[in-house]
């Protein structure tokens, strides 16, 4: 399928530009800024604070524009559930504000101030602006901006940290001791690589670009994505990419797109082979870490900390299953942690009062993701990125700081609702 979809000239193009900016910058732009600041030895706060302010500014501008043009907003039942979840989460923040004392401040990531600012400026308001914005006539601009920001982030990573990608123990340790940044977390770099692999698969299967010059960015994205996956030496991004591509494969099979199915099968074989060979060439331990998952769990030699977090969370959830008990888990020494699982963290913070509407939001999002892949394959990148960062949230991210997950979820709901409003029926 070629990307011949109509994109009519719209008098309301400003809403489309804002939507594109929020989606692209929220998903990949902030990461590129942080990577560049660390590589240049600049204090991360000099970049992250203005970066969040820029995203928040675009979100507020979008909400103001929609206030004057309400016909361009897309409304759905998921919006109500979304509001109920954040009402429950916000109530938990207010309850803890009266009693919480931060005992151990670990790089400021778990202080109440950080949680509040990230929730409002990095997650809640931007994702609300995206979920309401129905200006998808500019979908090619939104897609291309997102893709090239992701590609730029990957290139930035290689420029500043490429020489460290062979310095492995269990996973990559990158970054400088200058500028208040000691390390660049390998996990976001891994998911950036997974995003590039997903984009490459999407371009090949859904758009089937013609011409040598159109293939160059796709090939670069796929190769760079594999390199970052190997370089991060993290299992989560590889698992997320695998599940996302299986979801993509199922949709193409449902559409009876045998050419797309063939591309994914051949590409999967080539990708896995390239991943293994690249890991062996660079000395990455990622393959050993994947193959050793069963042994590590059985012997409790690795992953015990994660299991302990689940057990701690289960005890607190059992004590207050309706409204939750706390935003974070606190160890005996006062160190705060989060459970590394979306539903466990939701139950911990909001109980059933927040987790039930959250479940509905995700059900609606998955329904939209499937609809988009079946009916508007040229918009399939929206579904695939949502699936990838949902997997991230199931094994790693925190509710209050996972902007990519929330913006990805809002994007797929907004796009799916827009498609349905334009007479594309939801599948049974």
Automatic annotation (TrEMBL):
<feature type="transmembrane region" description="Helical">
    <location>
        <begin position="49"/>
        <end position="68"/>
    </location>
</feature>
<feature type="transmembrane region" description="Helical">
    <location>
        <begin position="373"/>
        <end position="392"/>
    </location>
</feature>
<feature type="transmembrane region" description="Helical">
    <location>
        <begin position="186"/>
        <end position="205"/>
    </location>
</feature>
<feature type="transmembrane region" description="Helical">
    <location>
        <begin position="114"/>
        <end position="135"/>
    </location>
</feature>
<dbReference type="InterPro" id="IPR051533">
    <property type="entry name" value="WaaL-like"/>
</dbReference>
<feature type="domain" description="O-antigen ligase-related">
    <location>
        <begin position="224"/>
        <end position="356"/>
    </location>
</feature>
<feature type="transmembrane region" description="Helical">
    <location>
        <begin position="75"/>
        <end position="94"/>
    </location>
</feature>
<feature type="transmembrane region" description="Helical">
    <location>
        <begin position="347"/>
        <end position="366"/>
    </location>
</feature>
<dbReference type="Pfam" id="PF04932">
    <property type="entry name" value="Wzy_C"/>
</dbReference>
<feature type="transmembrane region" description="Helical">
    <location>
        <begin position="260"/>
        <end position="281"/>
    </location>
</feature>
<keyword id="KW-1133">Transmembrane helix</keyword>
<protein>
    <submittedName>
        <fullName>O-antigen ligase family protein</fullName>
    </submittedName>
</protein>
<dbReference type="InterPro" id="IPR007016">
    <property type="entry name" value="O-antigen_ligase-rel_domated"/>
</dbReference>
<keyword id="KW-0812">Transmembrane</keyword>
<feature type="transmembrane region" description="Helical">
    <location>
        <begin position="147"/>
        <end position="166"/>
    </location>
</feature>
<keyword id="KW-0436">Ligase</keyword>
<dbReference type="GO" id="GO:0016874">
    <property type="term" value="F:ligase activity"/>
</dbReference>
<dbReference type="GO" id="GO:0016020">
    <property type="term" value="C:membrane"/>
</dbReference>
<feature type="transmembrane region" description="Helical">
    <location>
        <begin position="212"/>
        <end position="230"/>
    </location>
</feature>
<feature type="transmembrane region" description="Helical">
    <location>
        <begin position="12"/>
        <end position="37"/>
    </location>
</feature>
<feature type="transmembrane region" description="Helical">
    <location>
        <begin position="236"/>
        <end position="253"/>
    </location>
</feature>
<keyword id="KW-0472">Membrane</keyword>
